[in-house]
Amino acid sequence: MARSPRDNRFRFSFRGWQTGWYVVLRLPDRLPALDWNAYRNEILEWLIEQDITPNDLSYLANGNTGDGPVVPADGDALCVLLRRAADVMRFAMQFRCRGITPEAMYAALSAEASVHKFVLADLALVAYDAIRRFVLVYGDEFRDWDDLSDDEQQFFLQLVREYLEHPARSAEQMHEAWLDRRRLEGWHYAPEVDLYNHLHPSMVPFSKLSEREQAQTRLMGSVIASLAPMLRHV
Q: Is residue 16 part of a domain?
């Protein structure tokens, strides 16, 4: 079990909302490595117990490893990234976290809303239209954005979020990261898309995609990388 919130040997600081995550950070203490690692494991166990799924709704790291979200901390600092504001409050009650004032939370929520509700939606529409026009060149059908179901739109929006997290990745790296995340969510290969049953024809390594599908991946990455800096300031 995680230690009581009254235990103030460890205390995090709330750093607001950054690149898709709420950030809480603990600077390194002069403690034996075993104590530090044990505490890190307690946090991970608590996240799992609370269904704040690691690598999906949360991310725990000592610095950047190159295979996850960018962590705004030096290598020795303990950083916890959380997707939902409510989980920040739960975390703070359990592990102590200073800086969670009404003003700080309002600023963090506003920052999230500005990207997810406005910037992200605009960017998704541009990226989707670019892919649609690319496919139409080959004479294939491709539905308009407004003809997609809510689930289909949300699936595409999540893909855009993942691209925004790592805009410098190559098309192959982006696809493999997408593939790894979908596998964790229980997705499998099928010839046709079935969002309800978590089936998708792109559930194969990048090298197994057709040349056109690889080109679509490159096109999407290019559109997002080129427009994201401008759209974030809209």
A: yes
Provide the token pair at 89. Answer: 């409050």
Tens digits of residue pLDDT in 97-129 = 889 888 888 888 877 776 666 567 888 888 999
The beta strand positions in 70-129, using DSSP E, are 78-82, 97-98
- Quote the domain boundaries for residue 133: 111-231
Question: Are 148 and 155 within 8 A, CB to CB?
Answer: no
- What separation, in Å, do the N-terminal and C-terminal C-alpha atoms of the chain show? 45
Euclidean distance between CA atoms 145 and 151, whole angstroms: 12
Q: Does residue 116 share a domain with residue 81?
A: no
54-70 as b/e, with b when 16 or more CB fall inside 10 Å? Answer: eeebbbbbbeeeeebbb
- Contacting residues for 119 by C-beta, under 8 A, at least 6 apart: 231, 232, 234
Handedness of CA 81, 84, 87, 92 (dihedral sign): positive
Over residues 59-84, the mean pLDDT reads: 76
Residues 119 and 222 in one domain: yes
